[in-house]
Amino acid sequence: MELKNKVSNLPNKPGCYLYLNKDNHVIYVGKAKNLKKRVSSYFDRAQNLKTTRLVREIIDLEYFVVSNEKESLLLEENLIKKYRPKYNVLLNDDKAYPYIIITNEKNPSYKYVRKLDKKALRSFGPLPIGSNARETLITLQRLFPLRRCKGDLGKPCLHYFIGQCSGACFKDVDKQYYQEQIKKVDNFFKGNINEVKTILTNQMQKAAENLQFEEAQRIKEQIISLDFTTTKQNVEFKSQADVDVISYYIEEEKIALVTLFYRSGKLLFKDEHVQLYFEQDLTDLIDSFMTQIYEKNILPNKIIVDKEIELFDMNEKYKSLLTHPIKEEEKIIYQIAIDNAKEAIRKSKISTTTNIGNENELLLQLQEKAKLNKEPYRLEMFDISNIGNEFIIGSCVVYINGKPVRNEFRKYNIESKFKSDYDRMKEMLYRRFQKALLEKRMLPDLIIMDGGIIQVHAAKEIINALGLSEIQIIGLVKDEHHNTSFLLDTNEDEVNIKDQPKLFNWLSSIQIRVDEYAKSGFRKKQNNSFLKSELEGVEGLGKKRIQDLFKKYNTISEIEQADQEDLFKILKNKKALDNLNIYLKNRK
């Protein structure tokens, strides 16, 4: 009755709403031009159709009133990032596709990136999976040279001598040179590769004549790679526009979302995402999906979506680019997208029965095996990795609804004064959960300790001291070969999990992930320690400036390739920058 009253008393204003379950977890976040109308529609729908799992789980709701649609969009994005609700579309953090970019500098260079650099002078992609994008990058560097070295070396670099650098290493390069090279690259990615193929074919024949058969084979593979990258498709747009097609297909309790990326009229890349569907608003789901896609990727000239999607309710960032499939060619390629969505559903069914299994099934198995009092919606696993007492790193990986949430993974530097694993674990857990309480962050339902009874007791001591006894704690123990062996349940009893291979493999994968995450931490800490001590001999670079350098750059190589203006912004001292450049040159 209290929930019903809240719904009936909602204001007729724009804003965001949050649905909460019995554990006070946010399970869905939505936006609305009219809060009362939108939220009421969920419960009206539940009376007219079968009661959905989403509606059945709603025990309470919260809402925020905003001034306009733009504010509601921004707030919704932030709330979804904060709470990761299980009924929203939640893409993995690596939804960034391969690109080749040309940097926006006085002397530009090529780069292969997995996350779009919006400051780049040119961005080409997404590039097709299987196209061997790095080979394409090498081809461009050889045939249309830009700056290949870090520049301003005072002498020609090795790449210049073999015709693969613009000469920025020792001279001022005419802007016209770069403009002509970039124009050739533009034409290349538009599919005009005849010039490139002719050059490579001649090189291949020359290598074969000189009995350099390995070189000839390598060039042949380059040509094949280029053909794949720029191949013509069965369905092309008459225009050379960049177009994305986003479709969906629903079957039983699953929805597949598929995006086809057409570049210069050619289909280059496909992305697919499958998740559970419980009658959520389709416009909201597609909108959330697109927001996450285009947060990390380039916007096309046009986006085609299903006619059921309300274009007027979509994100302002791309609303002007949206259209329903109207022209005949748009209808044809949209049908291709739907066919791919159907195939994604079919593959997900096979995956569920043949691979590790779906996340809901695994969480229920874990609840039973570990004697948990509820399904662990959010779990966190902890590990310590160290080299003696010098480099000690604690790590935490976070899973929500059975899936890793990489942007919530954390590393912790542990001081060497903490000698035992017991004390190190206590230190890490205290820092993490004290801060979580202060910031009112979502707490886990379950903590998994990578280790045995000692680690479990360390966790219990801290959790109880902070008054968080509702968080359940179990252990995952390794054998003498450092492989996953058995589980310590909430009663600290040993539990065999090898009899349930899907659960065993899933837990093993989490254990491997937290272990590798910790080890990567101390390796980086160890390397930085050596590098920082190395730079301490450079006049003008005190500990503070060296520390500032390594906040942005991980290695000396990255510092060598950095833009001089960026380095000056960090060092804020021309003499110190000059000394650093002299050191880097002599270091070679």
TrEMBL record:
The entry's keywords: Cytoplasm, DNA damage, DNA excision, DNA repair, Excision nuclease, SOS response
One Pfam family here: GIY-YIG
Keyword Cytoplasm recorded: yes
GO annotation (BP), single: SOS response
InterPro entries: GIY-YIG_endonuc, GIY-YIG_endonuc_sf, GIY-YIG_UvrC_Cho, RuvA_2-like, UVR_dom, UVR_dom_sf, UvrABC_protein_C, UvrC
Signal peptide feature range: none
Keyword DNA repair recorded: yes
Domain UVR stretches: 194-229
GO molecular function: DNA binding; excinuclease ABC activity
Record's function text: The UvrABC repair system catalyzes the recognition and processing of DNA lesions. UvrC both incises the 5' and 3' sides of the lesion. The N-terminal half is responsible for the 3' incision and the C-terminal half is responsible for the 5' incision.
Classification via PANTHER family: UVRABC SYSTEM PROTEIN C, UVRC/OXIDOREDUCTASE
Subunit structure: Interacts with UvrB in an incision complex.
NCBIfam families, A to Z: uvrC (TIGR00194)
Protein name as catalogued: UvrABC system protein C
Organism: Mesoplasma entomophilum
